[in-house]
Amino acid sequence: MEEQYSIKDGRVEAVMWIVYKDGAVVIEKRPAHPTKATTCLPAGHVDLNRDKGEDYIEAAFIRESSEEFAEGKFKPTSWKYLKAIDFEETERDGRVTKLKLHYFVVTEWEGDVPEYTVEHNGKHADLEWFSISRYEELPQICDREVLSHLEKML
């Protein structure tokens, strides 16, 4: 079944998760792309075929984090919704995709944080721990904004 992306306020909804421990967060090092950042927080789309009900955003976060971190059998056990940020991303063909990014912070989990994310049953992006104090080095303004927000909360 083809994904049915959730659209809110004219934007495709996506979830982002910040795995946080001891002053560091997990970031993705994605394959080179001509228009998108290659270093970013892990993310996934809200799929209305699978993410249902009032808590569909949280359902998408749990599903996506478990799917993409499958190699570590990762399962969030303690998390908090931080905020939503509107963001625009340029595609390879020059089209602009308008996104509504819903950020969660994960502070406890079962399993392990794997070495890489999984997309379409294969390795997608390497994962590494990154000091939250270096958030200004990240290329996407939305990731910098939410990590600044989180750092102030800690």
Main traits of this protein?
single chain; 154 residues; 2 helices
Short description:
This protein has two helices and nine strands, in the order βββββαββββα.
Summarize the SSE layout with pairings.
Blueprint lengths: L6 E2 L2 E11 L2 E6 L9 E2 L2 E3 L10 H13 L6 E16 L5 E15 L5 E4 L2 E10 L9 H13 L1
Textual characterization of the structure:
- With 154 residues, the chain is α+β, with helices and mostly antiparallel strands.
- The protein has one domain: Alpha-Beta Complex (Nucleoside Triphosphate Pyrophosphohydrolase).
- It is built from two helices and nine strands; from the N terminus they run E-E-E-E-E-H-E-E-E-E-H.
- It has helices at residues 56-68, 141-153, and strands at residues 7-8, 11-21, 24-29, 39-40, 43-45, 75-90, 96-110, 116-119, 122-131.
- Strands 1, 2, 3, 4, 5, 6, 7, 8 and 9 form a nine-stranded mixed beta sheet that branches.
- The longest helix has 13 residues, at 56-68.
- The radius of gyration is 15 Å and the shape is globular.
